[in-house]
Model the fold of this input.
Amino acid sequence: MAEKKDILDDDDDFEKLLNNFINTKLDDEPNDSAAQNADDDDDDDDDDLEAAFKSLSPEGQKINQAVSGELDADIAESIAAAKEAAIEQENQPNLGTDESELAQAFLNFQSSVNKLSVEKLHHKFICEFKIDALYPNYKPSIGRILSEDLINGWLLLCRMFPQEIGTFSPASTDEEFLNFAEKLTNQDLQLAVISYVEILIDMESCELSYQAKLVKYREAHVKKIMYEEYLARKERQRKFTEALQERNFPVDADRLISNYFRVAQKDIDGAYKVLTTNPATFAPIDFSKIKPRLFGLIKVTPKDGVRINTAIGKFLKNLKI
Done:
């Protein structure tokens, strides 16, 4: 400490000089000559400062160099710490409103009960619940752990204050809790009771929020499954249609398969039976596309339609898709 006074003999004098420098009022719009004079003054100040440092004794110069090095190191360390804190803050997920309020209420409850327990029972109030468990959102499993800590904390309060809260029912309404807390004279106990009510309220909000999110998730999941089934059905329908078209049966393949899949959504077994035994039910046979036999000598008759209808049904029954 004595060595540093060789450089700065009096902290009060240094503060006065610093304040005078800070409070020095410059002109709002300095002209070029004034600016030049200011630059010259700065150069003169730097020269004076450098000369002052050079005029120090060798020991004083060592001290000055050491102090400057320490300041530079402190500044570098502060910058690094600030950068690390900023990165940590940026990467830290934010709690939702319900979870944030629940976390604050729990911290207040834990702090007040722990303080009272240490003062009166000489041991800490240990909780299983951790705030980090609320990330990324509240879950019923976390709520059960928190509830156990809440019950244990309340029982501990009853043990420490049997006259004040031993006869008060924890099943009381929120309003009854708050009215009861207002009458308490011990501030830590009052905070514990109020925090207890806040935890109950915030947990209910978190539960409702969780259930709402769960419903939305299930709805989205069901819609996803339905859409996937729709795409799969359309793909099967496409393959059935293409296979039927490749055989060049005298029937509108797209209409036949589309009608079959539409009916199959309501009665898959019945629709499949009709498809394989009487497919013409879904789309009529186009007699104009049936070629006459024996070079046109034998004309097309209804029997040809029955024959082709049976052939289509047999083909679709053996089709593996």
